[in-house]
Amino acid sequence: MDSLLNEYDVIGPEELEEIKETLSTQDMPTAISKIKNFLEAQDHVELNIGVTGESGSGKSTFVNAFRGLGDEEEGSAKTGPVETTMVHEVYPHPKYANVKVWDLPGIGTPNFKADEYLQKVEFKRYDFFIIITSDRFRECHTHLANEIMEMKKKFYFVRSKIDSNIYAEKRKAGFDQEKTLNIIREACKKELQKINIEAPVFLISCFELGKFDFNLLEEKMEKELPQHKRHVLMLALPNITLEINERKKKALEKNILRVALLSAGVATIPVPGLSFFVDITIIKNEIEKYYSVFGLDDPSLQKLCERSGKTIEELKNVMKSPLHHGINASSVLSLLGAAALYVSENTVEYIVSLIPLLGTVVAGGMSYATVSRMLKKALNELAEDAKNVLIASLETEV
Predict the structure, then answer these.
(1) d(CA 151, CA 145)
(2) Which of 53, 181, 348, 386 has the lowest CB atom count within 10 Å?
(3) Residue 77 in contact with residue 89, Cβ under 8 Å?
(4) DSSP string computed for 85-137
(5) pLDDT tens per residue across span 58-74
């Protein structure tokens, strides 16, 4: 059991005991507030991403696109045909302020020195770096990569503005997009090999982030991050491809074990009505998170409408889950199919929890199963809604 808990980074015994003690001695509103704070804390792990490259390579546009913003939106990094970033500037994610994307000053000046540059931008703060070029990889890129490796940090090479390359090649007879992309990949690979670097290069269009290699880049970053930071990355990524939608679902599914165990711990406290109210709070809190992570909240849908030309009604028409009408106690209870069943389960939980030892195990198991069942149902329905919205916004299978 311990190995299972460690694998999913769930609540430790000390944390659970602390929560149980708090819940058994405090009033209901305070107890529920404590639960919410605990659940939110796991999503507030700080993640810092450094984005660098030569002037005009599109790094500021990448900073915006990665956070789901256009170049003209409020909170976006300043962009332009010449260097607009003179010092390292932080741009928090609009939904997850703990995810910080840093727009670093351009590299490639005649006097550029990688070691001095990294000291200047305070390299220790970043979890990893993204090194961007819109043309060729040069010595300044590899000097920087070597210094980053020396400092035991991760980096990823990105070749930007691929949409411009594709547009130019389309005018030629016999155009083949996959062939064109492979030619660019091989050219990048050879450029890096000339300067003794073996590393994958990800082809990206910041204006069409869901195309080309963004899925591969995201997958690589996710695999190489520690578990707790991997979870935060998955929450923050823009939900722009079916692959990302599915990976978000899997990340949220793992978290069900954590919150269900919290519910099970609360169910062992013999306070009338406590388990019922806490479980409703836990489930409502998680479903609200699902909505935000999948981009199903109204502000996210409105942004999608502006980019796709669809109306918000058109997108909402493909959402089938009863939860899309609003998240409240009634819609949460509907996940069980009958609210009365849930109330009766919680009444039994209370009675059983009064029986020493065996009673607490049984009560906890009932609450664990109930919360798990409801959250899995909600997650499946909302992930399907998100998939349908994404397909509808593109008017084709992604």
Answers:
(1) 10
(2) 348
(3) yes
(4) -SS-EEEE-SS-TTEEEEEPPPB--TT--HHHHHHHTTGGG-SEEEEEESS--
(5) 889 999 999 988 888 88
Distance CA 163, CA 397 (A): 20
Q: Which residues pair with 53 in a beta bridge?
A: 132
The answer to whether 198 and 182 are in contact (CB under 8 A) is no
Q: Partners of 99 in the beta sheet?
A: 47
Distances (CA, A) of 297 to 36, 46, 137, 217: 20, 23, 40, 26
Model confidence band, residue 348 (pLDDT cutoffs 50, 70, 90): very low
What would the two tokens of residue 25 be? 């001695």
Strand partners, 49: 101, 128
Torsion of CA 219, 223, 225, 227, to 10 degrees: 120
State the virtual CA torsion across 186, 188, 193, 196 in degrees, nearest 10: -160
Helix (H, G, I), strand (E, B) or coil at 373: helix
Three-state secondary structure call for residue 16: helix
Q: Report which of 244, 235, 280, 229 is spatially closest to residue 259, judged by C-alpha positions.
A: 280
